[in-house]
């Protein structure tokens, strides 16, 4: 009886050992394109959420070009966060300011990241003149790779103009045409799912064969 209990446990562990590295590899490697990703601002050490987490808008935008990700994020309370630096050139470098909105007190910044798989340790300077507050802090930017969503890709960028022209010339098209167009845009995202499905089938078949041999021997 114990042998029959141990066999499913062994097969489950074997299945997870194969699937998890496969999933992580997919998340770590992104094709050239534009993505959104959620993230959390953590304290300098550990996984505790920093108070500065409320100063950053989510999600961030990630633009991948030649395999290198560039992260864009918006800082709230921009007048308070007077400095925002990330690793670079052997130390820390200022992030690039793309735009500011004085009325909303926000600014859009960007920086190039080596990877989104590990937290990015950053430096910020917070100044609140009305409260006589002036301090430096070290934070970590932890990205949730499972939340990554594709906003565009190289192939979709090439056909974007043609798609817009087609849509404007077909303002009176039927809803069925619209749903077909939507499905065509979503199709590229099914590639990873189908690969995972084939992996599952492969593992289950192999597991069944091993289980059969194990049962015959015992």
UniProtKB/TrEMBL annotation:
Membrane-protein topology: Peptidoglycan-anchor
One of the Pfam families matching this protein, by short name: NEAT
CDD domains, per database record: NEAT
Name of the featured protein: NEAT domain-containing protein
NEAT domain: residues covered: 30-151
Gene Ontology CC annotations of this record: peptidoglycan-based cell wall
InterPro entries membership: Haem_uptake_protein_IsdC, IsdA, NEAT_dom, NEAT_dom_sf, Sortase_SrtB_target
Keywords from the UniProt entry: Cell wall, Iron, Peptidoglycan-anchor, Secreted, Signal
Gene Ontology BP terms: heme transport
Record's signal peptide: 1-27
Organism in which the protein naturally occurs: Bacillus zhangzhouensis
Any GO MF annotation of the entry: hemoglobin binding
Basic and acidic residues: compositionally biased ranges: 167-186
Keyword field contains Lipid biosynthesis: no
Annotated region (Disordered), positions in chain: 150-193
Localization annotation: Secreted, Cell wall
Family annotation (PROSITE patterns): NEAT
Keyword Repeat carried by entry: no
